[in-house]
User: Fold this.
Amino acid sequence: MPPIDSTKPLIFAALELEAAALRKELNIEVQVIGIRACRLPRALPRASRIILAGLAGALDPALKIGDIVMDGSIHTSDRLIATAAEKAELFQTTGARAVDMETAVVRRAAQAAGIPFTAIRAVSDTADQALDPALLTVVDEVGRPRPLKVAALLVRRPNLVPQLRRLEADSRKALAALAIAVGRLCQ
Assistant:
């Protein structure tokens, strides 16, 4: 990897698909840090700012697919918030508009390193949409599908096919909106 230019922002994404979309649309370097920031470097490289960019689940019922949420309105969970009821309860108790699994972890690391931090997320599932937790079991730590696990899950639970198709289409829409937002932020 080329040396980090400390005058530019350092951009992180949890998932490879998030990073790939940003690289393609913006021609920028994006480091993948994995689900729950499991690949976040212990010592952060020098940078003018750290930007964590990616997808999030909506907690606020007013949010639509592709809406952008930033910083303090994002709640970090250590697990997938899967049901509409869980999302509603989290919205009620935290006031956060969206949920992810990385923002708080990266924010703490950036603060410890004295680097300004910005989180920017695009909504990939609305507050009323459920996500089956089994979906996390068929991807690796950076969100790449494990084909044999996907096939085994779909053989056992073919009813997940429509949810996977919807999630794929919604993620594409959200990633397009994310690339535009990150491009503006980096200008």
User: Anything to note?
Assistant: The radius of gyration is 16 Å.
